[in-house]
Amino acid sequence: MSKIIAVANQKGGVGKTTTSVNLAASLAVAEHKTLLIDIDPQANASSGVGIDVAESPVSIYEILIDSTPAAQGIQKSMLPFLDVIPSHINLVGAEIELIDRPQREHVLKQAVHALRENYEYIVIDCPPSLGLLTLNSLTAADSVLIPVQCEYYALEGLGKLLNTINIVRQHLNGALDIEGVLLTMYDIRLRLSKQVAEEVRNYFGEKVFDTIINRNVRLSEAPSFGKPVILYDALSVGTQNYIDLAQEITGGKEALRAGKTDAAGATQPTSPQADPENMEAQQQ
To answer: What is the separation of C-alpha 157 from the centre of its chain, rounded to a whole number of angstroms?
Structure first.
């Protein structure tokens, strides 16, 4: 039985799609059978793994609206252990089309139920809103991963997301857990990034991942080539960050820390605060 992780934050530009794509790719590289579901009408996660949505005969739209079996929407990616169900611009109107559907918040859950035995992890890239598509994702998910950008308005709107998660727990999915809060776009040169990271840790405590995603040029460039960063530049800081995140999710923080211990037993840093690489290294 797979674990379904919804990547959600109604605030745009926080690294949600970047995290969905690169987390899924990192899990797949570790040979965990993974499915990436793109339920964002912008379809950036689909193009980010090399899927041409214009040529996709079945997308998540047909699965949700026409009750097409989810298996028919699965496409292979460039990674052997990563499959994708792409999105489509038609999904923009899906919330209106679903409004009169019985059990409308459960449509995605019912659609992916038959796929759970085929994958170890299913990652859902949610739209930047708290509408019906995100509700479907949270209802279908076992946990929600919340990316938070290390900038001034980092915590703005998170209260609404947490309130939505509580409502989903009460009425739709009592088992929904918070997988973790992920600090993204961290710039070691900026005092603000450190202050925001401290504020988020004070607010969320142990729910914050040890792994931090650095602001990284390769992460920004990779989508334009239709590749996860691990295929675009395997040696980049961004690649290592998402490998660490995947390891933390699959094995917990203890496994990540153990993996950071060298043969001499000296623990290596797991976050930028403890690992002040030079500026050039941060940009590679």
So the answer is: 18
Instruction: Quick: pLDDT tens for 146-205.
Output: 999 998 888 888 888 999 999 999 999 999 999 999 999 999 888 999 999 999 999 999
* CATH number of the structural domain spanning residue 241: 3.40.50.300
Calculate the CA dihedral of residues 267, 250, 76, 19 and round it to 10 degrees.
-70
Q: What is the pLDDT of residues 201-248, one digit of tens each?
A: 999 999 999 999 999 999 999 999 999 999 999 999 999 999 999 999
Domain count of the chain? 1
**104-143: b or e for each residue (b if 16 or more CB lie within 10 Å)?**
bbbbbbebbeebbeebbbbbbbbbbbbebbbbbbbbbbbb
pTM: 0.89
Q: Angle of helix 158-171 relative to helix 132-140, nearest 10 degrees?
A: 60
Closest of 48, 54, 111, 109 to residue 84, by C-alpha: 48
Q: What secondary structure letter does DSSP report for 98?
A: H
CB 272 within 8 A of CB 184: no
> In which domain, by residue range, is 258 found?
3-282
* Nearest CA-CA partner of 18 in 202, 232, 209: 232
Task: Tell me whether residue 31 is exposed, middle or buried, using C-beta atoms within 10 angstroms of its C-beta: 0 to 12, 13 to 18, 19 or more.
Answer: exposed
Nearest CA-CA partner of 37 in 141, 148, 166, 182:
141
Q: What is the separation of C-alpha 71 from the centre of its chain, rounded to a whole number of angstroms?
A: 21
